[in-house]
Amino acid sequence: MSFSTSVKPYGVGKLVTLASPALQITISTLGATIHSVKVFQPQQKRWVEVNMQYSSHDEALADCGTYFGATVGRFAGRVGNGRFVLDNVEYHTPKNAGEHTIHGGGNAFDKKEWGFVISPNSETGVSVAFNYTSPHMENGFPAELACKVVYAIDKKNPNALRVDFAADITDSSPAEATIVNMFNHAYWNLNGFPERDPGQRWAQAEPVHNHYLRMPNSDLVAETNSSAIPNGRLVPVKGALDFRTGCAIGKGIADAAALNRDPCGYDHPYFVSGWKPHGPLRLNAEVSSPSTGIMMQVYSTFPCVWVYTANNLKAGASGKPGDRFARYTAVAIEPQQLPDAANWKSFPQSVVRRGSPYRETMVNVFHVSSAASKV
């Protein structure tokens, strides 16, 4: 297969596919969302779906709270108590997670139809740019913000997906500054997902307990309460939270005392050691499945990487519409800003001003080992 792009209808929007000999990446205009990621296994001569997602536009639009594969913003992650202060002005955001704001509040970036422009096939590779302009005071956030997300596969790296995030305050914006935490909320299962016919009951994927996770640059984790709201401190990792030398996710996933989550599991923001503002890509994590031999390396320019093992999904999901996926059948590896950063000056800030834009990059590199079990 050569490099190619294609477009097909998806509800009121579109699905755009970027393809290389090693990857097939499909993105939805609904939320500039990663809809599908297929990795080619040369030994088995087959494509393996590794991205958790609904197959129909209606299901994706109706879902509230999972954010499968979506571009989340304006300030995703957490805003504690639905408030923050910027330039001595207090702002209030929708409380859509108890007393707090999560992923920009309800009806945020993930529920918007984004415009898109496909770059002509070139000698360098294939790419598509998604665009959305967030109005001044949308969900309580000041400034009109022009947002752009570019997905690309380079011919020099046909097994890598690069995602560039950009946000600029527009010339016509009534406000001069805002806070931004825009990133992608993909969920992964490198064991592979079964076929997903929208009219059928879905079989569940194998849980990710067998995934081997290594995070060599995560010496510190943001200390949080049971709702994942930070207290402004970065503390050394230890025990079940220490993935610096690598271990199976299942080893510590049930350690309730260490993880402090209900339902129990990983839902934690790690600081990327050695991070510098506007610095180079750094390895955030690598995760692999012994079942398929697929490994994913995640690099980014972000200061934080959040690890979430889909704890809040239903333990005994039926596989029927509205109840498709079961708890622990995916892991999200999410490069982003530190949560609630605007309320903690001890954290790196992510304030965008006119002439001082938001620019971040994430690269997911996929490898396939010939030593994998044949499934």
TrEMBL record:
Coiled-coil regions, chain positions: none
InterPro entries hit by this protein: Aldose_1/G6P_1-epimerase (IPR008183), Gal_mutarotase_sf_dom (IPR011013), Galactose_mutarotase-like (IPR047215), GH-type_carb-bd (IPR014718)
GO biological process: galactose catabolic process via UDP-galactose, Leloir pathway; glucose metabolic process
Keyword Zinc: no
Any one GO MF annotation of this record: carbohydrate binding
Keywords in alphabetical order: Carbohydrate metabolism, Isomerase
Family indicated by similarity: Belongs to the aldose epimerase family.
Name under which the protein is recorded: Aldose 1-epimerase-like protein
